[in-house]
UniProtKB/TrEMBL annotation:
The keyword Iron does not apply. Pfam families: Rx_N. The keyword Transmembrane does not apply. Keywords: Leucine-rich repeat, Nucleotide-binding, Plant defense, Repeat. One of its GO terms (biological process) is defense response. Belongs to the disease resistance NB-LRR family. Coiled coil: none annotated. One of its GO terms (molecular function) is nucleotide binding. Residues 11-66 form the Disease resistance N-terminal domain. This is Disease resistance N-terminal domain-containing protein.
Length: 72
């Protein structure tokens, strides 16, 4: 029985390592995507803040803001 386990151990260990490598690769990819999305959200927040500031003074931006509000 011990010889069977000794023969299977390297295969099982390789299989576990491959599964872990695949899982880590996927998790790292998700982490990078979350970081990219975070950057996009920051850009959107800055854009919206700028639009809000401009809405006070610019008629064109006021019209755009009213269109967006009526669609919600």
């Amino acid at each position: 029985m011990a010889s069977v386990l000794d023969a299977l151990a390297p295969s099982v260990i390789k299989m576990i390592k491959d599964m872990l490598k695949e899982e880590l690769t996927m998790l790292m990819g998700v982490s990078m995507e979350i970081n990219k999305l975070g950057g996009k959200v920051e850009n959107l927040e800055a854009y919206l803040a700028d639009a809000e500031r401009r809405r006070i003074n610019e008629t064109r931006v006021q019209k755009w803001g009213k269109k967006k509000e009526s669609k919600q």
